[in-house]
Amino acid sequence: MASFGGYKKWIFHGECTPSGASSTINPGYPYSGYRQYVREDDMEGMMRDVFNMRSEGFQSFPPNYVASDDYNIGGNTFMETRSVPNEQLNEEAAKFYTLLELLREMFPFSKIPQSCKDMKKVIKDLGLGYNKIHSCPNDCMLYWGDRRNQQSCHVCGKSRWMNRDTEGVNEDEYRPQSRRKPNKILRYFPLISRLQRLFMHPTDSLAWKSFDNKFPSFASDPQSVRLGLASDGFNPFKIISTSYSTWPVVLVPYNLPPWLCMKQSSLILSMIIPGEKGPRNDIDIYLQPLIEELKQLWAGVETYDILRKENFYLRAALLWTINNFPAYANLSGWSTRGRYACPCCASQTCSQWLYNGKKFCYIGHRRWLDENHRYRFQRALFDGTEELKKAPEQTIGSEILFMLKDMDFSYGKLNQPSNK
Fold first, then answer.
1. Helix axes 192-200, 202-214, angle to 10 degrees
2. Which of 56, 203, 296, 366 has a CA that sits 20 to 30 A from residue 184's CA?
3. Which helix (H) or strand (E) covers residue 316, if one does?
4. Per-residue DSSP letters for 335-381?
5. 387 and 321 share a domain?
6. What's the rounded Cα separation, in Å, for the pair 251 and 298?
7. Phi/psi at 12 (nearest 5 deg)?
8. Is residue 110 part of a domain?
9. 351 and 328 share a domain?
10. Rounded mean pLDDT for each run of 10 residues along the chain, 420 residues in total
11. Does one domain contain both 283 and 194?
12. Last residue of a domain, one of 274, 305, 332
């Protein structure tokens, strides 16, 4: 609280007094004490952010006119709450339309979309949409890149469409009234544009700047983004006892502090691999768009930094994957079952077949102990032998690529070897 010319003006709302600040008010300058406590806003910087003012030498990104539309005009005049019958909301097609109708009543002078389709267009214009990529129902290939116009799978020959009558129809002769339904659709969320928005959006960039000031260890890193990839299957229809496996692929930005990078709001959804069956080892087919974007990000993508008011080359690298042991086999290509199940030991995995249990057990863990550790020589406590071997050297990425350079991989459910 401060006193100015005979009346009291409240400038605090429970905050502690800043250290070194004085509460003495100079009667000759009635506002001098007030300025000690209240931080002046960077009005010039805020105006530049709002009106996108920057030097002509910087690359200008196209303005988003959809984001500038006011969707809240006339909302203050809505005084009544309209009740919607539950039976009307039971129909899936009517749920969202009823919500839009209610919003248009609340905001009569606004630009609320008329239908769910129009709403999707708004979301897409804001850069929050996704790309639909058709795929073979047997997980053999994606109709993407150079193969986007193919009408059937070049591996198994399966038609791209559910309706076989349209197999011979040319893409240029396609008519809206003869709309074709693909057998399988991958929903891919582009990565580059989402990483660029982290630096181009004023609010997000200020949050990153705040973390840089509070945590110098993060500020010492360059602007490159470090990512981790996580994926696993789940059944979205478990409640109705239906066998179905959907695989989301999520990216984790590790430039954020540990207690923030794993929160749901910080995760980046990259794609949703459809079911009904999980992709298993054919997941490489669906990861192609993401790998292509990661290659571009490794070389660098020009991005505008709203905080520094300059362009820079945004780079990103994938550090590792996060998954359980079965999903590790699908992502890495190394089988986590059988005699050589350990991906670190590889061909030097110590395993033993249990004839009664009909499965492998894995031994040799004492190899990672010190050479003179007492456990190495205690036979009775382990498998009846002394452990004199050294720990195997783990192979590095370049060695693995050299071993795989001449191997040819075939994808698709029809190309899987039989278990018999």
1. 70
2. 296
3. strand 316-322
4. --SSTT--TTTGGG--EEEETTTTEEEE--GGGGS-TT-GGGG--TT
5. no
6. 16
7. -120, 150
8. yes
9. no
10. 56 53 43 48 59 47 51 50 48 71 82 80 73 90 90 90 59 51 90 75 53 58 72 73 82 80 85 85 89 89 82 83 86 87 88 91 90 91 89 84 83 65
11. yes
12. 332
Hey, what are 287's tokens?
């990861």
Residue with tokens 């897409």: 124
Whole-structure pTM value: 0.58
Q: Which residues contact 137 (CB under 8 A, 6 or more apart)?
A: 158, 183, 184
| Cα separation, 99 vs 118, whole angstroms | 14
Distance, in Å, from the CA atom of 264 to the CA atom of 246, rounded to the nearest integer, reads 19
Q: Is 125 exposed, middle or buried (0-12, 13-18, 19+ CB in 10 A)?
A: middle
Q: Does residue 25 lie in a domain region?
A: no
Rounded Cα distance, 225 and 219, in Å: 12
Q: Which of 276, 303, 332 is at the close of a domain?
A: 332
Q: Which two tokens stand for residue 30?
A: 């009635």
Residue 321 structural domain: 186-332
What the block records as the tokens of 23 is: 């509460």
